[in-house]
Amino acid sequence: MKKLLMAAVVCMLSLSANAQFEQGKIYVGSSLTGLNLSYTGKNHTDLGIQAQGGYMIADNVLLLGMTQFQHYGTDTMADEFMAGIGGRYYIVQNGIYLGLNAKLVHAYHNYNDLRPGMEIGYAFFLNRHITIEPAVYYDQSFKKHSDYSTVGLKLGIGVYLFNEK
């Protein structure tokens, strides 16, 4: 009986998660990045904040624009400002998403870099519109891979709004 009840709950959660990622929705989100847990070869810890907004161009496909500020805990590198575009694909039945992005990075005086990245995360719905979104990410540096490529964790809050027609 417990197994049947658990299967019913899982089916209901899958159906409700699936309905959240429909074409035409607008997404607004913010994340804390690094959380003092990301690691690069040059700077061992960092903390940042990211803002993003997007539009569901198809069911389960989100196109994003983002901006980010990153502060490093060491004196070897100044703070970074980033702007970029990306996308997410939501796996239909559970809220797990796969993301790809590209960021243009500007830091101290004349450091510029293009950093493509990827992430895997989970959109946990608190209600019909608001999510908590933990994710693991990787950003690849084209300037100097060993010093500026980053692996880290981020924790975000997302808002999914209906686009009334």
Could you characterize what this model shows?
The chain has 165 residues and is mainly beta. The chain has two helices and nine strands, in the order αββββββββαβ. The chain has helices at 2-20, 145-148; strands at residues 26-33, 46-58, 61-72, 80-90, 96-107, 111-122, 124-125, 130-139, 150-161. Strands 1-2-3-4-5-6-8-9 form an eight-stranded antiparallel β-barrel. Strand 7 (124-125) and strand 8 form a beta hairpin. The relative contact order is 0.20. Residues 4-18 have low confidence and may be disordered.
Short description:
By secondary structure, this protein is mostly beta strands.
Distance between termini?
43 Å
Quaternary state of the chains: single chain
The secondary-structure class comes to mainly beta
Number of strands: 9
Enumerate the spans where pLDDT stays under 50 for 5 or more consecutive residues: 4-18
**Which radius of gyration do the C-alpha atoms yield?**
18 Å
Q: Secondary structure elements and their pairing?
A:
Layout lengths: L1 H19 L5 E8 L12 E13 L2 E12 L7 E11 L5 E12 L3 E12 L1 E2 L4 E10 L5 H4 L1 E12 L4
Antiparallel strand pairs: 1-2, 1-9, 2-3, 3-4, 4-5, 5-6, 6-8, 7-8, 8-9
Keywords:
mainly beta; eight-stranded antiparallel barrel; 165 residues
